[in-house]
Description:
The structure holds two protein chains of two kinds.
Chain A: E1 4-13, E2 16-26, E3 31-35, H1 42-50, E4 57-62, E5 65-66, E6 77-80, H2 92-102, H3 107-120, H4 136-148, E7 154-158, H5 166-183, E8 187-191, H6 194-200, E9 203-208, E10 211-216, H7 218-223, H8 228-233, E11 240-249, E12 252-256, E13 260-261, H9 269-277, E14 280-285, E15 291-292, E16 300-310, E17 315-320, E18 326-331, E19 342-346, E20 353-355
Chain B: H1 3-22, H2 32-35, H3 43-48, H4 60-91, H5 95-110, H6 113-124, H7 130-137, H8 145-148, H9 150-175, H10 179-188, H11 192-203, H12 205-221, H13 225-229, H14 240-249, H15 254-283
Helix pairs in contact in B: 1-15, 4-9, 4-12, 5-9, 9-12, 12-15, 14-15
Amino acid sequence: MASVQFKNVSKSFGEFVAVKDMSLEIGDGEFVCLLGPSGCGKTTSLRMIAGLETPTSGSIEIGESDVTFKHPKDRQISMVFQDYALYPHMNLADNIAYPLKVRGESEQNRHKRAQEVADVLKIGHLLERVPAQISGGQQQRTSLARALVYPSKVYLFDEPLSNLDAKLRLEARGFLNHLQRDMGMTAVYVTHDQAEAMALATRIAVMNEGEIVQYAPPIEIYRRPATTFVANFVGNPPMNLLPVEAMIADGGISIRADGLSMDPLPVSARAAKALETGKTLTLGVRPEHLHIAAGGESNTISGKLFANENMGPESLVTLERADAARFTARIFTDDEIRLEQNVSLAFEARHVHLFDADGLRLPFDGE
Amino acid sequence: MAPATILVAVFVIAPFFWVIFVSFTNRTLLGRTAVNPEFVGLANYISLFDPVSFFQRGQFGFSLILTTQFVILSALVGQALLGMLLAWLLQSVPKGVKSITETFVIAAWILPEVVIGFAWFAFLDYDNGTLNMIMESLGLPPGDWLLQQPFWVIVIFNVWRGAAFSMMLFNSAFASIPPSYFQAADVAGASSWQKFRDIGLPLIRGHVVTVLILITMWTFNTFTPFLLTNGGPSYRTELISIYTYRVAFRDFDFGKGAAVGVIIMLINLVFALIYLSLGRKRAKGVKT
């Protein structure tokens, strides 16, 4: 195992800049997820660690050695591909043992080792079959077995679960989490699925347009998103965001918007500075922090009922405001919720997020 | 009937049966048998396979063996191997180098035969040829290649001419393999040779058979070397197509020429049947 470092790495494809001046440190034994929408540069970054792409500028280190221009085979890495990249003409045993074959291991040793790894991944009984004869989930585990069969410094995952159906994906995700706990491997994992990143990562690097927007542990990303982009990307459903007018009055930040009623928020240094130049902020509240107002709450937002979706253990209640902006509440009850045309949702001040006009988080003092 | 049907009937089907018919006669261009050819049964075929003269220079057997050697060396070894090597090397070079190489190789393929014939004639000329100039500048003795090594000249000529086709087919075959297969092998630590042996070649096996059969058929029937050597000197480069041409249109022995034509058709038929059966196998979804 080893650490991985990006030092001011940029990568362009012609005019298109895929990765912009990225610096990132992945510690030994860390499981880091690169999370972002398609085209954000996360896969390109992963492929640069693998050596399948070469940075336009900057350098990449694995352990203590600079690997920027090294061939993939000289980097001692493993990679699981999105399409699994299993060889259709080889059976599973040969597929899994292929990295050992190119290392000149004897056939006996190879197959013994393949059997061991396959047993751990519960595909040991399938070794005689070819990839076309096994299910998608088994193919996924086969490609994982091929990555695990030889010692590597870093394990790279390129959206390995995205070709699985929802149920298998949950199962495979749990398994990967277990494996990480077991092995303590250094892993870099690319995904556009925020739930996958939250579940697996020790740290998440949220990327957008070739840049890292926030690099922090999952709980930090969830609790204190650095920008409106992160707030909107992480969480399901995403955070409710609402442009509001704010000003400092009566020793607090008073916030105003149609249908919104709030107690003044405590003034923080950053917020005070932001309000010197403008008065438009963005207010954010996560759906799970909203509940139906019972009357008497001090922080509420109201509008017309737009949707009321019962999901079983929870319900999603969405209201629509006069300006067509929507607010969704995630309400944990298995009772059916009956609502009037006009709905009020309430929240607590400690669950409020504020972002400045550029979308940057305005932390409260003491954060 | 559609006009196309009529054209095919006039220019393909009629000559096909006409050749078979003529091969059983002693038809010639001039003389008595030109006007009133006689039916001679299998006499033309028997004379082709006459054991006394079969292997003599300028005879059918000699030409058939020469053609077989020509096919093995220039098509199977030369074109296919060189094409495969070029295609494989092109997989791992920068895009610019790849397209430049492709352009040059394909240029050799799309030029008209006559132009290429004269270009090679100029290249090999004893007094002013490019090859001899190169030889001299290297301090090596010049050679009269078309007289001294006519067979190897047409072999190399045909390799040069046809490697482009193999390269393009192998190239597209390699391109049909998902790039992640090779990337996974790269990451796993495989060398270029290991990737070729374990992944590239096994996955294009079906294409390899197709290419081999196609270039075998084409090389077997090729007439272009005639532009360089006229089939000589002393029949040493008289491939089967050139032999047919000489018998029918220089010696004007139409009957015998037609008989050779029929035999060539039968040999081609065998190739075509193998090719079609392989194609059908693949269409059925049998992975090759």
